[in-house]
Write a structure and sequence with these properties.
7-stranded parallel beta sheet; elongated; about 400 residues; 14 helices; alpha/beta; about 15% strand; Rossmann fold
């Protein structure tokens, strides 16, 4: 009787989920925004607490609190999280990164805590041991044996859905972004074709491509994401007179450093720093290629998003990119072995190889989309997380707890 009464009470009200994230610039920010918007309000009442950052997100029907964190451990942020917990009284705290897990578990009396564990968030030192003890479930994309097996839930990564964007000619897009046309300086020299036969060099010139290629990078402006290597790659594309524009979307404290290198290498007409943009998901499908040289697992979701909308990806080889991309079939991988000169040259060769071969780009687009649908489906990931919520709260499965994707 008491069990039935408890179950009825839990079904009679919506379960409260508090999502905590360090900032929207975090690599999982898009995933959180898409996930929260997909939870059916008939079963779940959601709220989002952002520890730091100034970027705003507008997610319909979901309240949001930004606390303005300034240091790694900020007393005012700690007190702010406490105020949110006392007001909202969540059934589950869902921490989307290591900082969110720390602040979510420091307060006494939290019912259930779920932590997303990326490779970059692995347990390290005494500071992380207490939050891990207070966490009830860890969501991991692959099992590596570093977390308690009884608490670990394996949920494969998923591609965040990208809204449909109407086709737009490249010239019109450049005009919309206020980027002037560049006068071509000479014939194009495809010196790196064919790619896999390094002893062969083709110095025969050919007319430049009439429409510029669009190459995208979506990462925070930090040295650890190998932005200097990307700028060196673009300088090499200038030397062979490739007709292209590179869009770098993201912000960071090293922005001025990268701008100085760009101007020193005379890339100001080709490489454009667009900052954080609210229309990133609409720009992404228009890229001819996405260049991803970061080794951070936290930002590997960008690869999946690009693949889902048919943008060929040239990525540094990491455990995540190897899982997502079959080299030469659903994307192109750059070996991370050797010194920086090796993978810089390799990045140039493989990027040119992709852009020169239109048939190859089309085959990669088809293979990438097909792989996302079969192996990295977002609906499946949402359903698995809601199952974890229900398990902890003790509610019955609800087939309508996940809203369908909007029609495109």
């Amino acid at each position: 009787m008491f069990g039935t009464m408890k179950q009825w009470c839990s079904m009679s009200r919506r379960s409260k989920i508090l999502h905590i994230i360090s900032s929207w610039e975090n690599g999982v920010g898009n995933e959180l925004a898409a996930f929260a918007a997909r939870l059916a309000p008939s079963e779940f009442e959601s709220e989002i607490c952002v520890l730091a950052g100034t970027t705003k997100r507008d997610i319909p029907h979901i309240p949001m609190t930004t606390l303005g964190q300034r240091w790694t451990f900020d007393v005012s942020t700690y007190l702010g999280v406490g105020r949110v917990l006392r007001r909202f009284r969540p059934d589950v705290i869902h921490a989307w990164d290591a900082a969110a897990q720390l602040y979510g578990t420091l307060h006494y009396g939290t019912k259930h805590v779920i932590a997303e564990k990326r490779d970059t968030d692995s347990s390290n030192g005494l500071l992380q041991k207490y939050p891990d003890r207070k966490t009830h479930r860890f969501i991991v994309s692959r099992k590596d044996g570093t977390l308690p097996t009884a608490k670990t839930v394996l949920i494969p990564p998923a591609a965040v859905p990208v809204p449909y964007a109407e086709p737009m000619p490249t010239e019109k897009l450049l005009e919309k972004l206020d980027i002037p046309a560049v006068e071509l300086s000479g014939d194009y020299y495809p010196v790196f074709q064919p790619q896999y036969e390094q002893e062969r060099w083709n110095y025969k010139s050919m007319p430049p491509h009439p429409t510029p290629f669009l190459i995208g990078i979506i990462l925070p402006l930090r040295l650890e994401h190998r932005m200097l290597d990307a700028l060196w790659t673009f300088e090499s594309l200038n030397h062979v007179h490739l007709n292209y524009h590179a869009f770098i979307i993201g912000e960071g404290k090293e922005r001025e450093t990268f701008l100085r290198y760009r101007d020193r290498w005379k890339l100001f007409s080709r490489v454009h720093f667009l900052g954080n943009r609210s229309d990133t998901d609409r720009l992404l499908p228009r890229f001819d290629a996405l260049l991803h040289l970061s080794s951070s697992a936290e930002y590997s979701g960008t690869i999946l998003s690009a693949m889902s909308c048919g943008v060929p990806v040239v990525a540094l080889e990491t455990p995540e990119s190897r899982e997502y991309i079959s080299d030469g079939t659903s994307g192109i991988l750059i070996p991370a072995d050797g010194d920086f000169r090796f993978y810089r040259r390799t990045a140039v060769k493989k990027l040119l190889y992709l852009l020169e071969d239109e048939e190859k780009r089309r085959s990669i687009q088809i293979a990438a989309k097909d792989r996302i649908v079969k192996e990295f489906n977002f609906d499946t990931a949402v359903q698995r997380r809601t199952d974890v919520y229900r398990e902890l709260i003790g509610t019955n499965p609800n087939p309508t707890a996940v809203l369908p994707l909007p029609k495109q």
